[in-house]
């Protein structure tokens, strides 16, 4: 192999490395800020009033816990600000229609080892200026799975808060995105 051939091979390798480097940089830069969610609410809606949902379950205080979770989730999301009923651009109204605890895993003695806790709502997101329903969802739920014993054990009240968190985040995602 002569020197000239070695120099050509080295130059080709350098060119290939340089090309791949710029390609990687281009991919990284184009990926920055990418999201699969598209905010789609009308530009006129900047604030929301969250009405305490009606609780049609036998679980006490569930409606207040959900409202608290929704307020917190909207504040964390940042798309809409929380406002009083008389000054909000939109209103979130709804009802909690079910609270279920379903057995998922059973032990040898037929006792339940793992549960799925599900909270289901019907809700509407309404433009207060026009009265138009922007988003309506029925039988919309949030859930969590939990064990009563073992290293992953948690209480039903902890699982309840997790299910409400999940529900609040899903509701906000449904309201603010096309997905």
Describe the structure.
With 179 residues, this protein is an alpha/beta fold. The protein has 2 domains: 34 residues; 130 residues, Lipoprotein like domain (Double Stranded RNA Binding Domain). It is built from 3 helices and 6 strands, in the order αββαββββα. Strands 1, 2, 3, 4, 5 and 6 form a 6-stranded mixed beta sheet that branches. Helix 2 crosses helix 3. The N and C termini lie far apart (60 Å). About 3% of the residues have low confidence.
Q: Report the average pLDDT across residues.
A: 87
What would you call the shape?
flat
CATH topology of the largest domain: Double Stranded RNA Binding Domain
H/E element order: HEEHEEEEH
Specify Rg, calculated over alpha carbons: 26 Å
The count of helical stretches stands at 3
What composes the largest sheet? 6 strands, mixed
- Portion of residues in helices? 25-40%
State the low-pLDDT regions, or none. Answer: 34-38
Can you tell me the CATH architecture of the largest domain? Answer: 2-Layer Sandwich
Q: Mind telling me the CATH superfamily name of the largest domain?
A: Lipoprotein like domain
The CATH top-level class label of the largest domain:
Alpha Beta
């Amino acid at each position: 192999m002569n020197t000239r051939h070695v120099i050509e091979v080295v130059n080709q390798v350098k060119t290939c490395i340089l090309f791949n480097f710029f390609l990687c940089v281009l991919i990284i830069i184009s990926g920055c800020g990418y999201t699969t969610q598209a905010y789609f609410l009308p530009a006129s809606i900047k604030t929301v009033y969250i009405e305490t949902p009606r609780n049609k379950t036998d679980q006490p205080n569930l409606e207040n816990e959900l409202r608290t979770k929704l307020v917190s989730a909207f504040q964390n999301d940042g798309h809409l600000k929380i406002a009083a009923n008389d000054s909000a651009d939109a209103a979130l109204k709804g009802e909690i229609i079910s609270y279920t605890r379903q057995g998922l895993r059973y032990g040898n003695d037929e006792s339940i080892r793992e549960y799925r806790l599900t909270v289901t709502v019907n809700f509407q997101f309404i433009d207060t200026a026009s009265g138009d329903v922007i988003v309506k969802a029925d039988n919309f739920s949030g859930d969590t799975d939990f064990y009563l014993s073992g290293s992953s054990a948690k209480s039903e009240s902890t699982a309840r808060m997790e299910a409400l968190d999940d529900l609040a985040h899903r509701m906000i995602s449904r309201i603010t995105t096309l997905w």
